[in-house]
Design brief:
The chain has 2 domains: 1-31, no CATH class; 35-128, no CATH class. It is 60% helix and 9% strand. It has 5 helices and 3 strands, in the order E-E-E-H-H-H-H-H. The chain has helices at 42-54, 56-64, 68-93, 98-103, 105-128, and strands at 9-11, 18-22, 25-28. It has a 3-stranded antiparallel beta sheet with strand order 1-2-3, with no helix packed on it. Strand 2 (18-22) and strand 3 form a beta hairpin. The longest helix is centred in the middle third of the chain and has 26 residues, at 68-93. It starts with 8 loop residues before the first strand and ends with a helix.
Length: 130
């Protein structure tokens, strides 16, 4: 039997996948695309968990197309901007002032908690659980 030298690399014409020789075996040279090293905030993580648990097909498609991370970053950014805007609007509407904060802290805290809960409920319904 003749001892043939095997090529270091070859590309499968049918799939277009490049293989490299490792020992006696060809291993596919699969590399994940570069991903930004961004830490997701609260809303991005909530959206990821929701997609993973309740919209598995959508989650898998975005993961395979490498669009999941960008989607989660966008949701997180949008949700935080919406939170800030709604908090400001609700505080103005309810006439919650710094004067109330200094004169009656318990009432101020209670009203701010109610507004925070209402704003978070809006964000969850509009952006996270859709």
């Amino acid at each position: 039997m003749e001892n043939k030298e095997l090529p270091e690399k070859y590309v499968d014409e049918k799939t277009g996948i490049e293989y490299g020789l490792v020992g006696d075996y060809y291993i596919p040279n699969l590399v994940l695309p570069y991903r930004k090293n961004v830490k997701l905030g609260k809303y991005g993580r909530m959206r990821a968990r929701y997609l993973k648990e309740h919209k598995k097909a959508e989650y898998t498609i975005m993961l395979m197309e490498n669009t999941l991370q960008d989607h989660l970053i966008e949701i997180d950014k949008t949700a935080n901007e919406r939170y800030d805007l709604l908090m400001k609007q609700f505080v103005e509407k309810e006439n919650i002032t710094e004067e109330l904060k200094t004169t009656n802290q318990l009432e101020w805290v209670g009203k701010m908690k109610n507004i925070k809960n209402a704003v978070e409920e809006i964000i969850l319904k509009e952006l996270i659980y859709v």
